[in-house]
Design goal:
Blueprint: H1 8-23, E1 62-67, H2 79-87, E2 89-95, H3 101-110, H4 114-117, H5 133-139, H6 147-153, E3 157-162, E4 171-172, E5 178-179, E6 189-192, E7 203-208, E8 214-219, H7 228-233, H8 236-251, E9 258-263, E10 326-328, E11 334-336, H9 349-377, E12 382-387, E13 392-393, E14 400-401, H10 407-410, E15 415-417, E16 424-431, H11 435-442, H12 458-461, E17 471-475, E18 500-505, E19 509-515, E20 525-531, H13 542-545, H14 549-561, H15 566-572
Parallel strand pairs: 1-9, 1-12, 2-16, 3-6, 3-9
Antiparallel strand pairs: 2-15, 4-5, 7-8, 10-11, 12-15, 13-14, 17-18, 18-19, 19-20
Helix pairs in contact: 1-14, 8-9
Length: 574
């Protein structure tokens, strides 16, 4: 979706018209715009005693563990995460609104779509009119819309640890001294690890002094001859863990409840520099690394590293010749559009397998952190595990990276444990913009009208409740500028080739409208449609299926999603 702000009002009005027309034929499962609950008559009878406790007297502590670029095939390698999934609620249809770091994180923090946050890319691009990164996040009023502010008003003590928003960094003053980044409202404890943490070692973090001002703490890279214990004590994931445990231990006996977000840098690739002797794009903790000369060794958790193969990457190497987008003309006539997947396939099988195994090694330190956080927080705490986006590594012949609308990039884990959570899998569609209203709901706090997501709190104790049936995605093309962290240098690809798009995903298929015109003024729309009668986006069937009922339903919803208001956005998922 391109940032043509002057057209948003008109697009929203058109969306409402399209929605009204569409709702007449969508059936009884569609709910009223803005409603958070489905028709009670459609809900199965459940035990009323299983209701979640969200009253003022019974508010629970909450912890969000957010991973970075985590792809689902890694989950089975993690002992504690697997245990957590067995003991809690697992949402099988969990997606992100934008499969790119900064837009996804902005959406999660506010419960809004990218076309509402106006955080569309990772970097600002134009300093005068930023379209992404920290500049856009603060410029367009998102700081005041973070769900953490609502939790504070409800009496929660809030803490943040780890990776925040892209380009939230220290700056240099006239004397060359590093100046801390600005204070962020909504957080009582503020331990953000700055961008140097992508490399694993050698970075800075923030803390609040006694006057509430942001200060910097240095985490120097240990000497090359330091012990494994010394090196791993300074590893970014382990420092994130230590900050998290400090917060929990300081507040678990408080009278007031707390909320803690733990945002790990793993398993995102490093940027540029690497620790001496560790020349990998995905740096694990030293204790988990493969020994020199043994590429199949090291610690891959529940699965031996040697047993991880490219067959685990669903759709790896799939021929893209049948994925070319399709034009839709008058009278329903279709024609082939130019291919946008024109990148050279430079990721070798050997490199892909090596990086897959390093990513599995990398998440083991996160898994140990999960175990320690769960033990410290206790069973009466809601703990949520998810990721800001997925990651493709040779699927769709896209080399490595994210940003695409496909399952490898948009589908993420969502596991919840805590009081009154009924274990088992959930089939409802959930998006990461639904997390903010869910946290507010669990806290007994009101959800602001600007939130585009819908709480799924009730499904934690009532797994069969009706919920979302569709997920929407959007992505904005922007030529990468200095500071872009997702150029996929380590994997041989580039995010620059993915066009702007909006998309809708239902149980039967995925419909994507790409804008093949890379300018921000023109449009050149073409479509891809995939049926999910096989486990990946195998072949674009838009030409043959676009007039079928399931495809027409997706098209109605996609048209109404363009520039949708929050209430319309919420209604379209039902």
């Amino acid at each position: 979706m391109k940032p043509k702000w002057s057209a948003l009002l008109g697009a929203a009005l058109l969306a409402v018209v399209a929605l009204v027309a569409g709702l007449l034929v969508l059936g009884p499962k569609t709910i009223a715009a803005g409603s958070a609950a489905a028709d009670p008559s459609a809900a199965p009878v459940e035990d009323p005693a299983a209701e979640l406790a969200a009253t003022t007297d019974e508010r629970r502590n909450m912890v969000l563990i957010l991973m970075d670029d985590f792809s689902l095939e890694l989950l089975r390698t993690m002992p504690e995460a697997t245990k957590m999934a067995a003991e809690g609620a697992t949402y099988q249809n969990s997606f992100v609104i934008d499969s790119l770091c900064c837009p996804s994180r902005a959406a999660l923090l506010t419960g809004q779509t990218p076309h509402h946050t106006k955080v569309l890319t990772n970097t600002q691009n134009d300093p005068e009119h930023p379209v992404g990164g920290w500049s856009a996040f603060q410029r367009y009023g998102n700081l005041e819309k973070q769900f953490s502010i609502g939790l504070q008003k409800a009496g929660y003590t809030t803490g943040f640890v780890g990776k925040y928003i892209n380009a939230y960094e220290a700056t240099l003053d006239a004397d060359g001294k590093r100046v801390p980044p600005p204070k962020v409202p909504g957080w009582d404890t503020w331990n953000a690890l700055l961008g140097g943490a992508y490399g694993g070692w050698g970075y800075q973090s923030t803390y609040l002094d006694s006057d509430g001002n942001v200060q910097l703490h240095n985490h120097p890279q240990p000497a090359r001859n330091a012990s494994v214990q010394e090196k791993d004590a300074a590893y970014a994931t382990n420092v994130t863990r230590d900050y998290a445990l400090d917060f929990i231990n300081a507040h678990r006996d408080d009278e007031d409840p707390y909320f803690l977000e733990i945002a790990a840098y793993g398993p995102h690739s490093r940027l540029g520099h690497h620790y001496p002797g560790l020349d990998t794009w995905f740096p694990p903790a030293v204790a988990d690394q493969a020994p020199a000369g043994d590429p199949s060794g090291g610690n891959c958790g529940r699965v031996a590293c040697a047993d991880l193969t490219l067959k685990d990457l669903v759709g790896y190497g799939d021929d893209r010749s049948d994925n070319v987008p399709t034009y839709l003309g008058r009278g329903g006539r279709t024609s082939q559009a130019p291919a946008w997947r024109t990148n050279k396939v430079s990721l070798s099988d050997e490199t892909a397998l090596s990086q897959y195994r390093d990513r599995a090694r990398m998440v083991q330190s996160i898994d140990r952190m999960i175990a320690q956080v769960r033990e410290a927080a206790g069973e009466d705490t809601y703990i949520v595990l998810t990721s800001d986006n997925g990651f493709h590594l040779g699927q769709h012949q896209l080399n490595g990276g994210k940003g695409a609308p496909y399952d490898s990039d948009t589908r993420v884990p969502l596991v919840v444990v805590g009081p009154d959570v009924v274990p088992g899998k959930r089939s409802q569609f959930v998006n990461n913009i639904d997390l903010a209203p869910t946290f507010l709901d669990l806290a007994g706090a009101p959800t602001p009208a600007y939130v585009s997501g819908t709480s799924f709190a009730e499904t934690l104790s009532r797994p069969r409740l009706p919920g979302g049936r569709y997920a929407f995605f959007e992505h904005t093309y922007a030529k990468s500028h200095p500071g872009e962290v997702d150029l996929d240098s380590g994997s041989g690809g580039t995010i620059d080739i993915i066009p702007s798009y909006i998309a809708v995903r239902g149980s039967q298929g995925l419909l994507v409208r790409f804008d093949l015109d890379k300018s921000w003024k023109g449009t050149d729309y073409a479509y891809e449609l995939y049926r999910y009668d096989r486990p990946w986006e195998d072949r674009n069937v838009f030409a043959e299926d676009h007039a079928k009922p399931y495809a027409r339903d997706l098209m109605r919803r996609l048209d109404a999603y363009e520039g949708c208001t929050p209430a319309v956005c919420r209604a379209l998922t039902r």
